[in-house]
Specification:
Largest sheet of chain A: 11 strands, mixed
CATH class of the largest domain in chain A: Alpha Beta
Radius of gyration of chain A: 20 Å
Number of strands of chain A: 11
Distance between the termini of chain A: 19 Å
Number of helices of chain A: 10
Helix content of chain A: 40-55%
Strand content of chain A: 15-25%
Oligomer: homodimer
CATH topology of the largest domain in chain A: Isopropylmalate Dehydrogenase
Largest interface: A-B, 56 and 56 residues
Shape of chain A: globular
CATH superfamily of the largest domain in chain A: Isopropylmalate Dehydrogenase
Strand order of the largest sheet of chain A: 3-2-1-4-11-10-5-6-9-7-8
Chain lengths: ~325, ~325
């Protein structure tokens, strides 16, 4: 049975390295096929007494914060865990990397170490549950904030290829996020991208998708710049959290405990937390970006996603 | 008792002019203080037998579609109902106008007939219910798609003034929609606007607001360009509709009828439909933009909002 060597950046989570290391421990306990490379504070990592034969340790104690310029950091800080981790992941024996660190730093190091020669720039995808009970691949979710129309076309290709391979969709429907369904609607960027996508022969372009249809299942791939994608992702999650909070309050207020059953069902169906990991498309290795607020559970879930994708032999051939 | 003359553009709804005219009939029946100016197909309007002393009719049968260029239409189509309606609303005796017509056309005509001399460009606001059970003014919701940082500062002023006057908030908290809470987060537009807003003395700027906090009640005014605002508005509504649809299905499947009580409560609390009317800020008269899908009910609700705001003497003095 094949073994998967997964690189984990143990720094970068708001919850601290201990939480990430707890997640790493659980991965080793529950998945005998996973071996790990743990990047971070060696002393702290050693204190967890991981089995030596399954764990490699790389000492790197620096981080890139949200206030750093990631490009500057790449050249000036030699010992940043996310950079070291991505460099290590580029080696042949690794299946991929999991990090909850800074998105900008992730992009800079991925461009340096993991760029697929056929692609100009990777993008960050989220796989979101939709109303048809299938999945929609949202690209980009925040890795590329200021982009041009050609990059949106690139995102469409990356998302389309991913959905073909992962979900065996023959001709994924690609939609473009806009403020109206008509081709004349959109900001300058979207209007130009619309024209280019309509002419793109390898893309099954289904036109503009409005904000209220993002998770309707009208398309398999939803293309937008990273600023807009970040809004879609966070706004959908925020609304779900808001409504579920209201349901719990209503259940308590009215003493109707059966509503908690509904809450459980909705949280399982629309599990944004476990699906919250972003997947970098257009890189040579699997890169899973967990949220900054990730704890042990999120890291463990990310390892499951990573192994699932890695097992899909056709995906990164 | 004061009478309010409300101009209604009877064309522009996807549901046809008959629906708008039914709404007009209800306004007259249920609000003795409202008189109307109905703009549209005179023959059709006459077939409704409105009381002559309360209704003025302007014959204008043309419309601006989503495929027209609104500026071209303004100069080439002399008989467009939304243009005629806004021109009529600019007269002293009118309290404002209600339309479900084209947003671009509305902006063009408002710039021509209703521009407040103190402001550079109006913006479209939506008043949304938030988790604190107060309201958040979202500006812009789609009237100005491609804008510069100075326009976002202008939107902040318009939204802030509106919330001061309508809700008597002394110093409304103004947030800027971004992809991260730190001042360094955002696209080029947002980063520049952040700097300007931080220096703006008359604005109580509370910094960046992320997509999952849009309706959290952390700010009274949420500023963004029209493309992003349209996403927030439609995405929030779309998620609410999706989750409520799931609740109804769950209620049927499990035979748990009490869940419908919860659905009723949520729909009342987060009534996006009745709050769906956009309000043009920075214009000399009240301009309410209903959705393209508006029927009789939406037009009637808009008239109530318009009269409520008009009664607030301090608002448009």
């Amino acid at each position: 049975m094949e073994k998967y060597k997964i690189v984990i950046d143990t720094l970068g989570s708001d919850k601290g390295p201990e939480e990430i290391l707890k997640g790493a421990k659980r991965i080793l306990e529950e998945n005998s096929r996973a071996n790990l490379v743990l990047v971070g504070d060696e002393e702290l990592i050693n204190s967890f007494n991981f089995p030596r034969e399954r764990v490699e340790i790389i000492d790197a104690k620096e981080t890139v914060t949200n206030y750093d310029n990631p490009v500057e950091a790449f050249y000036k800080k030699p010992n940043v865990s996310i950079f070291k981790a991505i460099e290590r992941a580029s080696k042949e024996d690794s299946a991929g990397i999991i990090t909850a660190g800074n998105s900008g730093a992730l992009m800079v190091a991925s461009l340096r170490y993991l760029l697929d020669d056929k692609r100009t720039r990777p993008c960050m995808a989220a796989i979101l549950p939709n109303m048809q009970h299938t999945f929609t691949c949202l690209v980009d979710t925040g890795a590329s904030i200021d982009v041009g129309p050609l990059q949106l076309v690139e995102f469409a290709h990356l998302g389309s290829d991913f959905m073909k391979k992962l979900y065996k969709i023959e001709s994924p429907r690609v939609g473009l996020l806009s403020n109206g369904a008509e081709p004349t609607k959109g900001n300058k960027l979207v209007k130009e991208a619309h024209k280019l996508l309509a002419e793109e022969k390898e893309i099954n372009f289904v036109g503009n998708i409005e904000g209220n249809k993002t998770l309707s299942g009208l398309c398999d791939v939803l293309v937008c710049d990273g600023f807009a994608g970040n809004q879609v992702l966070k706004n959908s999650e925020g609304m779900a959290v808001n409504l579920i909070t209201e349901m719990v309050k209503f259940s308590k207020k009215t003493g109707n405990a059966s509503i908690m059953e509904l809450v459980g069902y909705l949280m399982k169906t629309y599990d944004f937390e476990s699906l919250g990991a972003g997947i970098l498309l257009g890189a040579k290795k699997l890169v899973l970006k967990c949220r900054g607020s990730s704890g042990a559970e999120a890291i463990y879930n990310a390892s499951k996603i990573l192994i699932n994708i890695a097992e899909n032999k056709t995906l990164y051939e």
